Amino acid sequence: MKRRDFLKLSGFAPIGIMGYGWMGHGWMGRRHSTNSNILSLKPKKSPLPIPKLLDPIIENGIKKFHLNIQESHHTFFENINTKTYGIESTYLGPTLLLRQGESVEIEYKNNLPEATTMHGHGMHVPAIMDGGVHQVINPNQCWSAKYTVNQPASTCWYHPHLMGKTAEQVYMGLAGMIIVEDEESKNLNIPQTYGVDDIPVVLQDKKFDSSGQIDYSPTRMEIKRGYKANTFLVNGAIEPYFNAKTGWLRLRVLNGANARVFTISFGLFKSFYQIATDNSFLEQPIKLNSLTLSPGERAEIVVYVDRDLVLQDRNTSKSLLYIFKDESIGLVDSLPTQLTNLERLNIHDAKRVRRFVLNMRRGHMAINSKIMNKNRIDERVPVNDVEIWEIINPMHMVHNFHIHATHFEIIERNGSARNVLPSERGFKDTIYMPPRSTAKVLVKMKDYVDEVHPYMYHCHILEHEDDGMMGQFTVVSNS
């Protein structure tokens, strides 16, 4: 039986070792009422949607992007129009390609019936261009992030950051990727043809009601645990497929879920290589059989396509993306042994230690027993000082920790540098914090001093962030 005929008959039944196929993923007998009555809904069988590369306008040497944030409808299920939010699209947004050293202006027009913001997650920018809780875009208004790209090659993303509404707006579809290139990345012998062998992969999970509409209605317990669902999406599609050429395939994987932690794998016996973390290349490719990403984290991986593959979530044994080997030969058939040389910070240069305890206060999520208050500055960080930030999760639940404005190094987990995984040894902006764990990261705020406008640090489980697990800091002059 031919592969495509197999798909038609099986409704995306598994072809990998660990996959269980769509019907095996729990459509029958789910506990959640919002999912228990949608047996008649059939997921749309489709190729992997590839977000378009948005074409900029060049004016006076400035690369300008214009993005419309809008209400829309998207087809997750056959013959069902689901209400969504999108950015220049029915769901999610286009990919923005930026290059180190160039001047950019990203203008967002809010066509929603409610306010929003748009944060460049992972972008090293001035505080007033960060798109945090203070840069609100009201309905029918525009806001622009203007800056010079000042960071190495990386995979970043943009998403709302509105106080109390971030989780719902991301859940409805507001997110997109930002790819930063530099001279070093362009000269590496790695897959670099967007949409062909260099593919964005946005992982999410979603609840739908009996009519196929998105259901975002967390209970108080689901706010504490994070809002999770049993329907998994890749770039807004349910179990899509991608036709790949024989050779190395690069996947820029973003955990764009509200709360779910994904552990990605191609099965027990298929290895792959991680080449980048949130904000930088790793110095050498790291061979892996699985990789865990918490919400907001990114990783660039390459896998050799010599047969059909299934990208899976090992935590749930669900299939995420089917990769079918094409007969043609790919553009890259070998990988470099050295990717970059990272200019690391020196722990002995650290001027101070700051401690951030992820806990609760009066029933709400908090940091250092303080619930987020956008009128309060929690920390003042001197520019160019090396600091150790100690992050403590004393709770019996998963958290993580994201810092705006900077790219940090993980130097210790649970009291030892040996517990830092090789796959974590690039620069990052988000760190996974399992239950009852500790970590230390090395931080240095650079370039942008603003003693009035703050950046944020917070848990990137979006329900936790909205509930109060967030704080603010300003970068102050060092004098």
TrEMBL record:
Coiled-coil residues: none
Transmembrane residue ranges: 7-28
Pfam family, one: Cu-oxidase_2
InterPro entries linked to this entry: Cu-oxidase-like_N, Cu-oxidase_C, Cu-oxidase_fam, Cu_oxidase_Cu_BS, Cupredoxin
Keywords, alphabetical: Capsid protein, Cell cycle, Cell division, Membrane, Metal-binding, Oxidoreductase, Transmembrane, Transmembrane helix, Virion
Keyword Transmembrane helix applies: yes
GO molecular function: copper ion binding; oxidoreductase activity
Protein's UniProt name: Multicopper oxidase with three cupredoxin domains (Includes cell division protein FtsP and spore coat protein CotA)
Originating organism: Nitratiruptor tergarcus DSM 16512
